[in-house]
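Entry for the shared binder. Reason: the reviewer on the internal report wants the predicted structure included alongside the sequence.
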Amino acid sequence: MDAIILAAGKSKRMYPLTVEKPKGILKIANKSIIQHNLEQLEGLVDKAIIIVGHGREYILNHFPKEYKGLGLTYMEQWPQLGTWHALDRARYSTSDRFIVLMGDDLYSKKDIKSCIEKEFAILTTNKVNDKKRFGIVNEHNGKFMHVFEKEDKEILGLIDDNTLVNCGLYVLNKKVFEYNLGISKRAEFELTTLIEEFSKKNEIDVVKVQDYWIPINYPWDLLNTNEFLLKRMLDYKIDGIIASNVTIDGLSIVIGKGTEVKSGAYIEGPVIIGKNCKIGPRAYIRGCTSIGNNCRINAEVKNSIIGDNTNLSHQSIYVGDSIIGDDCNLGAGTITANSKHDGKNIRSIIYREVIAKEGIKFNREIVDTGRTKFGTVIGDRTKLGIGTKIRPGRKIWLDKLTEEGQVVKEDLI
């Protein structure tokens, strides 16, 4: 049996993190989203076919032809015309029976296995907060009947505590490639349209999530997921060099090979620190923080994701509830404000590209993050001048520079 991972999309809602990179390569708990899913597939499938498109080189460089004994094959989707169009790229490469999953959500091995035990299956859950963000699955006696997409007006009258949403994981066989379907209302070739047609002649079991399914749609979802994974982590593994007078508090701590933790540092788990980092002296790494490889950290960092080769090397820096990209440098006195005085949820801007006569423009939508604590999102290779202050929920795009003492009141794009 094969797995087909759909990872070709551009994920504009995740900007600036996905301007260059595909969403599936973004790291949570120091592993990419695709890597997390490949680990869940170990022992369940023989081969994974990864459908690539936007930022394909990042995936190809990150994963060669094999991952922990799991064979990897790559198929390119270009242009990206929808999820059914993406699946069709694997038409001649997959086994007769296969599992399909989205390359930008996290799935559990337990739930994948439950689906594989059925001849045909769709994974669903009723345990999400905002069900209007997802397709709604209609079932009868445990069998799939219909899916209402997010734009369907019927969805508003269907939602209650028991309503099931579509998790985007399916067990199918090659008969699906016999269907020749038209374009949807959203001007795409959609997998849900295919599932509906396939279900008319084949019973599809509706499987409910027993462990976890984590959709990752917005940058702050990375923080939520990072916290979830670190709190489940039971590892205590220190391969680095720990100086005297270092405090390590907690049972869930991972420190990579070649990392030096200098005197006076305080690490409060759960925390993951990558390889060849320099931590301290007097750094304070607070819980639910992931730090990549080759980083220099001498700051206070709380509940954040720090990319590879990034420097927070001054004691006067505070980074809270934030995502900092790769190859960044934060000057002395950089402060990320991560809460509002009124205690209300922080709102942040989401971008959608629009092709206009004069070039690419952005539509902007202000979205409630659902978090009372949310700092900033900083793209790769950004350099912040000393004393930079960033208001809650603001984003700084790739390769940006700030002046000394600059207050970031609006997104820098």
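Summary line for the report: The mean pLDDT is 93.
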